[in-house]
Amino acid sequence: MCTGLSKLLELVEYKLKEAISREPTLLVMVVGVPNVGKSALINNIHRIASSRFPVQGKMKRATVGPLPGVTQDIAGFKIAHQPSIYVLDTPGVLVPSIPDIETGLKLALAGSIKDSVVGEDRISQYLLAVLNTRGTPFHWKNSNNRRMEGIQYEAEEKVDYSLKNLRPSRRKLPTKSHVLYVEDLVTEVQCALYSTLSEFNGNMEDESDLEVLIEQQFEALQKALKIPNKGCEARLMVSKKFLTLFRTGKLGPFILDDVPEANPLS
């Protein structure tokens, strides 16, 4: 579990105890933009409550999924008894209008807007622009040097694996061969982006130069992801697989907003 979520759950636990000391019955509503983990948060609140307070029978769990729109209606869950704690899960909400294009692209990249609204190709272009301008492939090289230098692992069995299997599900756990397959695939993708960026001689702040680099990276990603040349269809497949790796955390944790640097203590 990431540090941010752990701290959030600690705060939730503290607030639950604080509120319960005053109220015999507690009603909690979780509200936020689509696809940010509201239902997953509710399930974790359920876990906290069930470990601290008595429960009656088997409790329902909120349905989660990788795409926006899984939660269609407001759903109520009783997660504890004595004291009674109820949680309301709500469909994702967005502001009526998105203030600028970049905000819309960030929401689309995070999965808060359906891909079909913006287009996987455009979302992938934005992701590549973010990675390039931040120099992320160079960070990959420094932090994962041994694998990016070409060390590969032999699978113990023939792997028939789809990136769709990276999505959260209740299926059986992946085998060691599957794990190594994904690790090698991620390394191939990282190497492809590192190589193209390290050979780039243009100006990163020039839109035309950046577009040329991104086109080169799409070609490199197609080879890394082993997608046969099928024109527009190949471009769409590259975009979908690349976005899946990003959204499932295989390319590492990211904050899309610019975080201001903390002022050093005087």
Automatic annotation (TrEMBL):
<keyword id="KW-0547">Nucleotide-binding</keyword>
<feature type="domain" description="G">
    <location>
        <begin position="28"/>
        <end position="101"/>
    </location>
</feature>
<dbReference type="InterPro" id="IPR027417">
    <property type="entry name" value="P-loop_NTPase"/>
</dbReference>
<protein>
    <recommendedName>
        <fullName>G domain-containing protein</fullName>
    </recommendedName>
</protein>
<dbReference type="InterPro" id="IPR006073">
    <property type="entry name" value="GTP-bd"/>
</dbReference>
<keyword id="KW-0342">GTP-binding</keyword>
<dbReference type="Pfam" id="PF01926">
    <property type="entry name" value="MMR_HSR1"/>
</dbReference>
<dbReference type="GO" id="GO:0005525">
    <property type="term" value="F:GTP binding"/>
</dbReference>
<dbReference type="InterPro" id="IPR023179">
    <property type="entry name" value="GTP-bd_ortho_bundle_sf"/>
</dbReference>
